[in-house]
Amino acid sequence: xxxxxxxxxxxxxxxxxxxxxxxxxxxxxxxxxxxxxxxxxxxxxxxxxxxxxxxxxxxxxxxxxxxxxxxxxxxxxxxxxxxxxxxxxxxxxxxxxxxxxxxxxxxxxxxxxxxxxxxxxxxxxxxxxxxxxxxxxxxxxxxxxxxxxxxxxxxxxxxxxxxxxxxxxxxxxxx
Length: 175
Known about the structure:
This protein is of the alpha+beta class. Helices cover 33% and strands 24% of the residues.
């Protein structure tokens, strides 16, 4: 038996342990039932359950629930629009979310699906440093899709620090 202050009291009968716990206004909790003899502890059970729940909530808060974000494009996408959408895809991957790249074809564009394949392959190549391909590009009706998942974070070593490149001087600002 372990007391409320953490000191080991010794082996006691169940009735003695219960009366000792009740005299202190606390509960008798069986900590290790498989041990011989079973280990019991005098503690406030309500406080113990509260602390357990608090630790579980704190651990859950640190976990990230992965979501699937979709980036929609067309085969005739302009350069700036493509870069803008690719930047969003990069941000989603850095935030540990999956990204689904979708190219939608309309009308006669269906005859030139190779343009869509090239577009998705280009995006996969440019996102290669932060993503791995979960499902390769495949055609489903009028759409072409590929799913990327974030690469696992690097463990060990120094954390990435973003330092400005160049000579360190700031560009002049205009009034």
